[in-house]
Structures are given as C-alpha cells and as structure tokens.
Write a structure and sequence with these properties.
single chain, 379 residues, alpha/beta, FAD/NAD(P)-binding domain, D-Amino Acid Oxidase, Chain A, domain 2, 2 domains, 8-stranded mixed β-sheet, 7-stranded mixed β-sheet, 10 helices, globular, binds flavin-adenine dinucleotide
Amino acid sequence: MYDAIVVGAGPIGSYTAYQLAEVGFEVALLEEDKEVGRNVICTGVIGTEAFERFDLPRKSIVSEIKSIVFFSPSLLSINYTPSETLAYVVDRHLFDKELLQYAQGKGVDVHLGKQVHRINISRDFVEVESWNGTSFETLRARLVVLATGINYRLQRSLGLGVPASFLKGAQAEVEVKNLRRTEIYVGRQISPGSFAWAVPLRKKRARIGVLAEDKGAPRLKKFMGERFAGRIKEENPVVYQKRIAYGPVRKSIKDRVLAVGEAAGQVKTTTGGGIFYGLLCSEAAVHVLQKAFSKGDLSQRGLLQYERLWKAKLGKELKMGQWARKIARRLSDKQIDNIFKFVEKRASIKEMLEEKVKFDYHVGLISLGLKLLRLGKGK
Ligand SMILES: Cc1cc2nc3c(=O)[nH]c(=O)nc-3n(C[C@H](O)[C@H](O)[C@H](O)COP(=O)(O)OP(=O)(O)OC[C@H]3O[C@@H](n4cnc5c(N)ncnc54)[C@H](O)[C@@H]3O)c2cc1C
C-alpha cells in the first residue's frame, strides 16, 4: 500500500511525486509513455522566478529570454528589454527526464509504459488499475493524484471537473535566419485575441508557434509563410498541434483524489503557459496533503484547503486573462496599431510597462492595457 499514487509523469506529476517523497511519503508514479518528455509539444519558456523558487534542472536550459520585440499588424514594433533576464527556454525532453530522475532519487517507484484506465475509490484506500500493453495491474494507495495533462478521461469517470474550453497551440521547430530576440506578433490575421511567437534556441534554431481559439496549425503555416518568408530554412516545416486547457476546473478534489497541473486547468489563460502555475499548485497540494495525512483525513473536506489555496492564488489571474482575451478578440488591426503608436511615443508608458510586466502574472499589464483603451487611443 502506497501513501500516494501519482498518475502522469509530465513535469507537474514528477515534481509532485518528488516533493511528496521528500517529505517522507511512499509514492508510486505511473506514466503511460515508455519514456518521458519525448515529442512534447511545448515552447519550454519558463520564467526565472520558477527556477529561483523550485528545484528545477538548469542543465535543461537551452537559451535565455532577455528581450522581446512585439509587432503590431502593420509591423510597428515595441522593444521590451528589462534590466534582468525574463525567462529561460528549456529542452522539454531533458527537463521532464531530469524531474523524473529527481523523483526516483527520492525513492519514488516509477512505472513507465503503464496506462491508468480505472480508479476505484473505497472508504480506506484507492485502487489504481493500469495496463502495460499485455497485462493489467492493480496498485493500492491511500490517495491518488491526477497529473494527466489534457487527458481528462479519469476525471470524467470520477466526477471531477474538466476545463470549460480549450485553446489550440501549434508549433514548429525550424532553422531561422536573423532571429536574435524573441518576437511576438499580434493582429486579426495572426490570431484574433491571441498571438504568434518566435523564440530563438541554440544554433540558429527556433520554436515558432501560434496560440488560437480556432485552428492553430493552418494559422501557423500562414504566419510562417507570410512573416518568415525567406527566413526559414526548411521548405515545409512539420507543424504539431495540441489543445491547451483554457480556464480552471470547477472541482479539483474529491475523497482520496486530487488533480494538479493542466489536469486541473492550472494554465495561464493569457499565454497558455502551464508549467509555473502547475508547479505553484503542486507545492500547495503537497502542503495540504501533509496536513491531511497527519490528521488522517483524506476526504474531500480534508483536501478542500488545496482547492481554496490554488484558486485564491490564481483565480483572479485566470479570470482576468479570459476577460482580456474577450476584449482583445474584438479589437481591429487599426485599433491595435493605434495602441502601438501611442505606447511608442510615450516614454512614461514604456516605464510603466517595465513596472507592470511580470512574466508570470498579468493582471497589472491587463489593467494598463484597459487604461490605454479607455484613453480612447485604441479607436
Ligand atoms: C504549442 C504549445 C506551447 C507551449 N509552450 C509552453 C511554454 O512555453 N511554457 C509553459 O509553461 N507551458 C507551455 N505549454 C503548456 C505546457 O506544455 C503544459 O501546460 C504542461 O506540459 C503541463 O504539464 P503537466 O505535467 O500538467 O501535463 P503534461 O505535461 O501533459 O503531462 C501529463 C502526463 O500524463 C500522462 N498521462 C495522461 N493520461 C495518463 C493515464 N491515463 N495513465 C498514465 N499516464 C497518463 C501523459 O502521457 C503525460 O506524460 C505549451 C503548450 C503548447 C501546446
């Protein structure tokens, strides 16, 4: 009998297992893939705060983001270069592999190639049934943590919440000329209410992507064809697409079950980034679980503080992001251009941007954007 079984060895599942084992619990980690981090569709951008706050593998860092250039629909630009590095870009294969090794190093029992297809909850324990391709196996624990990313099948079967909707993230990794800084493009032609990005890696390689409410991959192909014409070496770059949870789940706990990471919709509604918010919530989960185990109360009531904690920390950010997206979706290209012109002319706004822009928290920036719109400069 384990204390906890974590399902899903993405970064959030592995980190949760690692922390639980570190504070003395017996933990098993089950992952359906035979190897973690392979073919992950992710740009790998993680703010510096995450590396300061959590034990993350620095050897997975492939580049740093020190500066971002924002492009308007008519290619007006705003350069944002704060005094300190904004974020790191990681190799997700290495990042995920290292986090898994951290967990193993703390004594977590890792089971790769095991897909969990059923969880039975009893009064005193949970039974987790998995399939390894040839046979079924059942493990028992006092509690199960779901860190299954965008696979919500287990949540549905247990009556837990799922995100109300999804965005689409499309990405290609290519060799590109003259890309020294991260570039962000906005406008209706790119993706209404959203954006496209180009993030330089090492050796002239870059991750180019689009976040969209509708079709991501066709938008990315069009974007690369138009804005990166002649700059991309590959003729027909392979584009990968994946859904991204958009908004928190209503219910992330029940008796002896807790969901964390993208499995609970803990993803920025502004940018679709999920690693930092997932790690923050994983930390909250471990904190609450320690108390719940010591009180011997793993009921929904005993786990309620987890849901309260993470929603208090991130609820406003997630809501404001959805609201900002709704407003941004209605802006015409001319309005966006006007905002760029307005900001470009005023040093004071650029200074305010420096102050308000926090890589992982966007409420301040959204409030500033709304002020600009109210000033009528977006008309
Ligand atoms: C194009 C794109 C770009 C992105 N860029 C960024 C970025 O730059 N920065 C950022 O922070 N985020 C980014 N994200 C989001 C980020 O990738 C996710 O938020 C993050 O991977 C979530 O981590 P997780 O551990 O919660 O889930 P995942 O990484 O999805 O891991 C879930 C794991 O659970 C396993 N699993 C699922 N079901 C089962 C089952 N039944 N049994 C066993 N195992 C199971 C899966 O195989 C997987 O390994 C991006 C997403 C996309 C699509």
